[in-house]
Amino acid sequence: MRRNPIAGAKKGYGAAGLSNSPATLEELLPKASLWRKVTDRASGSILRVCDPALAVLPPPQSERLLQAVWYDDRWRPPELRTVEGEGVRVCSPGRWNLEAGPDFLEATLEVGPQRRQLRCDVEVHLRPAEWDAHGHGADPRYRNVQAHVTYAPGRAPVTLPPTALRISLRDALAANPRFSFEAIDLAAYPYAIRRSPCPCTAVLSDWGVEERVALLEAAGEERLRRKAERLRPAMEERGVEQVFYEEVLCALGYRDNKAPFRQLAERLSLAELRAQSQGNPETAYALLSGVAGLLPESPRSTWDAETRRWLRGLWDIWWRKSSIWSGRCLTPSEWKLSGFRPANHPLRRLAAAAWLFARPSSLWVELGQDLIVSGGRLRRAVDRLDAPLGGYWERRLTLGGVLQRRPVALLGRSRAAAVLYNAVLPLFAATGDRAAFRTGWAETLPDEGESRRILHTATILFGPDVPPSLIRPAIRRQGLLQIFQDFCLHDRSACRDCPLPERLHAFR
What we know:
This protein has about 500 residues and is α/β, with parallel strands linked by helices. Among the domains are: about 80-170, no CATH class; about 240-360 and about 380-420, no CATH class. About 45% of the residues lie in helices and about 5% in strands. The chain has helices at about 5-15, 25-30, 30-40, 65-70, 130-135, 170-175, 200-205, 210-240, 240-250, 260-265, 270-275, 280-290, 305-320, 345-355, 365-375, 380-385, 415-430, 450-460, 470, 475-485, 500-505; strands at about 80, 85-90, 95, 105-110, 115-125, 145-150, 165-170. Strands 1, 2, 3, 4, 5, 6 and 7 form a seven-stranded mixed β-sheet that branches.
């Protein structure tokens, strides 16, 4: 029997700041409902998870994620089958179509034991019924679609050509324990180059500052509400503190290593880490690195004496305890270990995780107590999360690397802020913690910094001369990310057919 996450929080599973009467998400984030009025009317923008067929694997939050899976062989399962059981090999997923019509053009597939070759267009949907719902059967642009790829299986669409292959990805994706939709960075995939000025800019040109702020903050609260809603089932199953641990580790991994960090948190649970490390961060680090499969088996000849001595100490700890995780460790091949800033290497991030979670007291409870003591100032959470300098990694970016002239933070303020937005705040909301959402809470949020996606969306909405003060508060930047997710990523018409301009009129 699953336990209620809010009830569990009152009994000690949640933050210490939780009041006797946990709030609903609607009470904590009232502006979010304004943004839902925009997206509810936007055809195909938001997935409504109500189909029981979508329960095996946590479903994608948009069709766009499924398109990325089909397009990229890093995510696409190597062995696919039609709903009739015929094998399918994808030689080429096709050309990603950014205009009206099928999602992918001129794909090449090999089908069946005879490997008959099929060159065709491909349409991607979350559910089979969306083919009929979108009227593709009567649209001549879809006449060459001979592969209908969906997430969930289901009844064949009425107007789908009888010769078209029907391929469901859900079971093939669920069979891979390393797969996670969260690991996919949608910004890395092609989306339409929008004409300038964009229609949204024209609509918003006569809006006052207060109206623009209301739009961004409503979208920002909705982004937080959705994250909280997603976490509640996991809280019911595994408890708030374990989910908090999983979400923090996932946030440490950036987009390329989110999946292995999440697997690490599942294979080495928070309860195990605490029990085995006994409050010692070095022991916790040896365990995390060992289960992650990232402890080098032998030193390199170029490593200095300090590195060799430090690594030998870690192996002394790991050898004594490694049998507990026999068969559960990850391998180096499951991690991305190059192509990013050295300060973001998983081995450095694991040092931050060891410091955060090896402490005798609960980090989750400490964060809740900080809210009470500080009167709800969320910047205190960043102070708590920003791992202090010290130890082997204080002046090193890589294992055995040269000593840096100045100390290099294990996390830094911007990454600690990202942990706050992606793990701490959603869980405070999911547990109904009123202390985190007192009047003016959004004004206490620290700055996470700008990203290309934030600046891109701000330009689409407000033009190239958007005032920095309009998008500086963190909740508004979160709102820009949500607008991008709900509309810009899904628009393949160079803004011509995007429903957002019309919805902005309704919002106003």
